[in-house]
Amino acid sequence: MRVLSVLGRPGAGKGTQVKYLQEKTGFVVINTGQMLRERSRANDFLGRKLKEILEKGLLVPTPVVFSLWMPLLEKTREEGVAQGVIFDGNPRKFYEARMLQEVFDMYGWQDFRSCYIRITEEEARERLLERGRDDDTTEEIESRLTWFKTDVEPVLEHYRKQNLLIEVDGSRSITDVHNSIMEELKDFLSA
Ligand code: ADP
Description:
By secondary structure, the protein is of the alpha/beta class. The chain has a single domain, classed as Rossmann fold (3-Layer(aba) Sandwich), CATH 3.40.50. Helix content is about 60%, strand content about 15%. A 5-stranded parallel sheet has the order 2-3-1-4-5, sandwiched between helices. The longest helix has 24 residues. The model has no long low-confidence stretch (mean pLDDT about 95). The structure holds adenosine-5'-diphosphate. The site of adenosine-5'-diphosphate has 13 residues, from α1, α6 and α8.
């Protein structure tokens, strides 16, 4: 099993690129944001809490995201059909990266890479205001840019030190970014 984590500031094009990668690889995609938005529709304590957190653009507590990931990872492992898993925009904290590593060790999944799609804060702001999704208001965007710095950058640093990080310039066209990712991940994807 191969595991790919696609990281980048909000608006970097993670979702866009993950979609292309999924088409090419057939890997199972874990879209945590979407899972959380779905869970937030339930009118129970966790549902209401998640709604509030998502509206503010804050990070969801790690145990909650693992409670969503684990059944999906377990199902993927059990079925044994897909050749890999793609985490769209996760892990978001250093200790989430460590905890995920424990999960992969347990499963014997040793083939891991992270792909960082790099754009500046300015580009992120511009693209998100254009996209105009419900949670893309100025305040939410700023809070997401803040935790990218405080929480996700240490994750990138961690993977970089372990030589697990590939980086692509996300300011180019969707096709150019895609081609760079395919080139950088050539060995990983064909292994
Ligand atoms: P993320 O998942 O990283 O938040 P998305 O894939 O949702 O990013 O893309 C955010 C916005 O930027 C979307 O409106 C998308 O169409 C646009 N976008 C994605 N990639 C590019 C690109 N390479 N150049 C210009 N706009 C892009």
